[in-house]
Specification:
Number of helices: 14
Radius of gyration: 22 Å
Helix content: 40-55%
Order of helices and strands: HHHHHHHHEEEEEEHEHHHHH
Structural class: alpha+beta
CATH topology of the largest domain: hpI Integrase, Chain A
Strand content: 5-15%
Distance between the termini: 61 Å
Shape: elongated
Largest sheet: 5 strands, mixed
CATH class of the largest domain: Mainly Alpha
CATH architecture of the largest domain: Orthogonal Bundle
Number of domains: 2
Strand order of the largest sheet: 6-3-2-1-7
Length: 302
């Protein structure tokens, strides 16, 4: 069997299996990797692909890609190889990969772009109303973009993500799989801890009220690609995850307890997550910290 044939089988099985199927973003990442790998490996038989072949592929990829990207693309090659199994689940072409021999470029000083308060404020001032709200929400909560795009305004029906304006909070239960208003589908949060409540500062809650009416509707109905394009046009080229880093940096500088930071951003673990959900005392503490921490940037008058 050719590598290209097994690669397609790997994607199809991963997407449709019952146990931990590939998430939308994972599948997209794998497909992107394979667009670069298949011209180099696609026509080769699986049985001839070994450390020597992959070393040459890694060296070729390193001519135009970053060390981290090369490493991740080689990992996809390894996964495709290991996915070739017989009827009993035994690998048909087991390999003992030799990292020293592969000699992939070292990942150093990895960039993790964030944005300044001034740059954020400039982007908000340039953006249209819906994008203003999106930028302020992402920077003021640390929501992942897929979580934000699944948000509904109005009555919380207990199913999807909801902005509960009366309680100044966001309830996160899922994330959006892509598409536009008429094509929206959702999937589970990135982790179990992603199911959470994110308390809003009063300032941010009021800002959202000034933009959205009290009606049951999708707050951000356009596709992620459309929002991403306008993000760059409004002066932010670092991507949506930069908003999340901005929020985490601000919460840390405001001395917000680590447990609460993890809870709000969906990084909480076990007992920490449960305590912040169920304890009445913790609920009050959350509200107090949300107001005390504030936003770290200024919102324009609407």
């Amino acid at each position: 069997m050719k590598f290209s044939e097994q690669a397609e089988k790997f994607l199809s099985q991963g997407e449709n299996r019952k146990r931990k199927p590939f998430r939308f973003n994972t599948l997209r990442t794998y497909r992107t990797a394979l667009t670069r790998v298949l011209p180099l490996l696609g026509d080769l038989s699986l049985e001839v692909i070994d450390n020597g072949v992959v070393k040459k592929v890694g060296a070729k990829l390193a001519e135009t890609l970053s060390p981290k990207t090369v490493s991740s693309y080689v990992d996809v090659i390894k996964q495709v190889m290991s996915s070739a199994v017989d009827d009993n689940g035994n690998q048909l072409f087991p390999r003992k990969w030799n990292s020293e021999f592969l000699d992939l470029p070292t990942i150093e000083n990895q960039k993790q772009p964030t944005i300044s308060a001034q740059k954020l404020q400039n982007a908000i001032s340039k953006a249209g109303a819906s994008d203003k709200a999106l930028y302020a929400l992402l920077a003021g909560t640390g929501l992942r973009i897929a979580e934000a795009l699944a948000l509904m305004s109005g009555k919380d029906e207990g199913i999807g993500n909801a902005w509960v304006r009366e309680q100044s909070k966001i309830i996160v239960r899922c994330q959006r799989k892509g598409g536009t208003y008429d094509e929206i589908t959702v999937m589970p949060t990135k982790t179990k801890a992603g199911i959470r409540e994110v308390d809003l500062s009063p300032e941010l809650n009021d800002y959202l009220k000034s933009i959205f009416q009290d009606a049951y509707t999708h707050m951000f109905p356009e596709s992620v690609g459309t929002y991403r394009s306008r993000l760059a046009q409004n002066g932010i080229t670092e991507g949506f995850h930069a908003f999340r880093r901005f929020r985490l940096t601000h919460l840390d500088s405001a001395n917000v307890p680590q447990g609460l930071q993890r809870f709000w951003t969906g990084h909480a673990a076990g007992d920490v997550h449960e305590s912040y959900v169920k304890s009445g005392e913790k609920l009050q503490e959350r509200k107090e910290w949300a107001e005390k921490a504030g936003l770290g940037f200024k919102l324009e008058a609407t």
